């Protein structure tokens, strides 16, 4: 195992990369579609569905976008598989989570930087006339704000430092062991059932846009399918999440003697 002098900077570098990528992902999924950055053509100059799906340029762009999403999904799923996690733990120790977070951030960077918009293609829906051209973007903006606030709140409930791999290194340096070993059975059960704690909120961000074009349909549909397959909560998990949320709110509201679950 590498000394703390190397472990801490490596974990911090992974955190900085992930945090910066998260900011860029918010811009990619929210700010760009809400501000109309990718909308370059007038509605009357766009192709219809049949023409677009026969256009080699449109098909090439969609194929590139499909490959990018599959690349991210493949990395995210492969590195979360138990055999791969075991191998990474054997070779990287407490940096296993930090490495997973860094690779996920790099995969997202590739998606964001090489994503190919299809502005000339048809749209599933679009706000074009008043009052919808004013109120629909405003409503979507409010929904996105609420969704991202909920996402950040849920990440705090799920122990953000541990999700980012910082807590594992911190515990190791102080000789406190593995953080997961201190979790209750209810928490471990929840982690087994839920790989993506922000499923509904992220789906809101993906679909609630003023203009849903071909490339956005592809992104939203694939990630909806992926998130749906990874979401396996039951009533017991939901009760545990509710109890943890109440506990966090009590801790934030003031000093109380709250027993950990």
From TrEMBL:
InterPro entries: Nurim-like. It comes from the Eukaryota. The keyword Acetylation does not apply. It is a multi-pass membrane protein. Residues 1-18 form the signal peptide. Keywords: Membrane, Signal, Transmembrane, Transmembrane helix. It is found in: Nucleus inner membrane. The chain crosses the membrane at residues 94-115, 135-158. Coiled coil: none annotated. One of its GO terms (cellular component) is nuclear inner membrane. Belongs to the nurim family. This is Nurim. The gene is NRM.
């Amino acid at each position: 195992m590498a000394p703390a002098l190397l472990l801490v900077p490596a974990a911090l570098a992974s955190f900085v990369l992930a945090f910066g990528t998260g900011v860029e992902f918010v811009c990619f999924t929210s700010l760009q579609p809400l501000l109309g950055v990718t909308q370059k053509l007038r509605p009357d100059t766009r192709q219809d569905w049949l023409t677009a799906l026969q256009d080699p340029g449109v098909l090439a762009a969609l194929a590139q976008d499909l490959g990018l999403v599959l690349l991210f999904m493949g990395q995210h799923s492969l590195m979360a598989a138990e055999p791969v996690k075991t191998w990474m733990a054997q070779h990287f120790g407490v940096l296993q989570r930090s490495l997973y977070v860094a690779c996920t951030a790099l995969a997202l960077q590739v998606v964001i930087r090489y994503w190919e918009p299809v502005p000339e293609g048809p749209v599933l829906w679009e706000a074009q006339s008043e009052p919808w051209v004013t109120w629909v973007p405003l409503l979507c903006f409010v929904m996105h704000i609420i969704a991202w606030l909920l996402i950040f709140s849920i990440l705090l409930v799920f122990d953000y430092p541990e999700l980012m791999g910082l807590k594992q290194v911190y515990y190791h340096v102080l000789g406190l062991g593995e953080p997961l070993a201190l979790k209750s059975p209810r928490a471990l059960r929840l982690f087994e059932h839920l790989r993506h704690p922000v499923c509904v909120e992220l789906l809101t961000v993906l679909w609630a846009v003023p203009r849903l074009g071909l490339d956005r349909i592809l992104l939203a549909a694939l990630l909806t399918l992926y998130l749906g397959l990874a979401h396996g909560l039951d009533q017991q998990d939901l009760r545990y999440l509710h109890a943890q949320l109440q506990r966090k709110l009590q801790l934030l509201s003031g000093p109380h003697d709250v027993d950990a679950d």
